[in-house]
Structure prediction request, 391 residues.
Amino acid sequence: MAGVQTAVALREQGHTGSVTLIGAEPHQPYDRPPLSKAVLLGKAEGSAFDVDFEALGIELRLGREVLGVRPAEHELDTAEGPVPYDVLVLATGAEPIRLPGAEGVPGVHLLRTLDDAERLRPVLARQHAIVVVGAGWIGAEFATAAREAGCAVTVVEAADRPLAGALPAEVAAPMAAWYDDAGASLRTHARVRRVEPGAVLLDDGSRLPADAVVVGIGARPATAWLAGSGIELGTHGEVVADDRLRTSVPDVYAVGDCASFPSGRYGERLLVHHWDNALQGPRTVAENILGEATGEPAAVYDPVPYFWSEQFGRFVQYAGHHESADTTLWRGDPSGPAWTVCWLRAGRLVALLAVGRPRDLAQGRRLIEAGTAMDPELLADPARPLKAATA
Prediction:
């Protein structure tokens, strides 16, 4: 997404020079959200972007892995030889974290790429018994698809709740019931000791039968190939970009899952592993690449992060960043089908999570962007539109 959108944005904003898009996968560039939904369930053959690369004059070099970059020479190293560049945009995304000791065990799967989804499709079609390791976003989405396909599903999570790394305990706790409602078994405080053909063994001695195991324990920026390049990497292995999405070396930008950026809005550096970031960031990168050549003022990247998830019959949306909030307010009953959590800092909305309330999300996102002061009493009334709850 980030690479394709950068190439397209360069053309849309008037770049007339050459644009080359290099990717390690052999497939036409594709979108990822359908992989855990329509593609996985056999409702679609793929999710290729509807982009006429030839008409836009964008050269695709597919199935080509980049091995390194030498900024001083303005060259990339690939197995097919060096590739020169004037400006380089790093959009390598993230790669799934693998379960230690599970490599090479038959029946163990990841879900990140089109090939991963294609390998899992027949597993769901055969209605296998599946163990999902990790109750994060991808684990919940895969479990949803597997239950829809008629599979027996057990989700094991080392933490005490689903989405432990993403949401506070009181917000994530109601989501645990969604698994039971969908006929999936959720086991928390469950650490995997070993995976063997046909089974998953837990630290407490439990042995879970498993025709297949799907690992969804997180992702890390795909930046190992940048070792020795001089491009600064952060504590999570991500490329450290500035507020214009420039890296620490000249003529190199970074965008999407592989890069962090400083947020003036939230007063900290953000590493956002979500689709919307890979959609929005490229526009800023293209603007700044072209601005460097024309002397135009720089564009600053400081979005309100946004993502969504479809799981167990619910549409879950999140906007903002809640880490610095000092107040949490609920709109609606979390045991019901539709509710929202709002986070405020000094009376202003900084984040919200909306379950089945898309209007709350749309209005709240605009209020966050504007830094609008809110009336907590009015805000807590689920019958009142968010935009009518301002102070």
